[in-house]
């Protein structure tokens, strides 16, 4: 008779553990319903933007927080001071309302390898586009498309999986400032 009690006790213990685990999952772990299951966290980039604008040797480009359409969210931000041969690097990534990726990338390093890296080997096209009086060159790639602007001392790239329309919205929203 002792063997049956052991199996019964084990089953009851497992059931109790299952109930506790389900309770912790349902009530103890926050679930972000607005993220559409993407699991990607939203970041506030204001502090990093201010820091980069003070430290970078070029005017750092970024949309002012809140200037992009509703549903856009910043998901990544980094600034790395100058390091040979890449130069100072600025990165700001977003997901648009359709969960397409858009990034603003800047560097004062060598333009060709920088553009190749951040656009995932997108190729320059013959097409240019004027956005807020500035000339941008379109790049097309298997993974990312991009808009690229080269100026003395800095290359600015708006790239990602989003359409050229979305890339253009970000390029038009950029404000360049030196801290």
UniProtKB/TrEMBL annotation:
* Pfam family membership, one: DUF4245
This protein is called DUF4245 domain-containing protein
- What is the originating organism of this protein? Streptomyces niphimycinicus
- Record lineage: Bacteria, Bacillati, Actinomycetota, Actinomycetes, Kitasatosporales
Where exactly are the transmembrane stretches of this chain?
Answer: 12-29
Kindly state which keywords UniProt assigns to this record, in alphabetical order. Membrane, Transmembrane, Transmembrane helix
